[in-house]
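U., I forgot to send this yesterday:
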Amino acid sequence: MSSRQMSSSPSARREGRKKVVAFRRPPPAKTLSKRVFGVPTIADDPAEVQRLVRGGVEASKLKAVRDMYGLSQEELAKLLGVTARTVIRQTKAKSRLDPKASDRTARLVRVFDRAAEVLGDVGRAREWLGAPVTALGGECPRSWLDTDAGTSEVLRVLGRLEHGVFS
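Result:
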């Protein structure tokens, strides 16, 4: 489904013009933001997400991130900038991530939810994030998410896809 829908009114047809009606697809009901941060999307309550990031995301929430992305423990740890052993230890101890790892978790959540919004569902988002993308030099988007610059580029490519620009 495209992000724009064309409709014609009788007067618009007479004048040879089409009226463009834009709409925004609602976010998927079970967003990763809801599972990790308790808000429908990160954009809905950035102040709450900021508070949670500063206080540390519960390590137990990483399972939802790992499952949504289809990541191994090692892949998730690399994206968070920690070791796999640290992720396992913190999860077992039911502790909180430090602010840096929490911020990276928020980054992963933001990208996944955006991909699900643009592509229409969680399955397509997971598939796209794990598949080679021409606009990213043939690399898969999730391999770019370990840096802020890479994350920005993935979000830019998603924006281009949303607007129908080949990427």
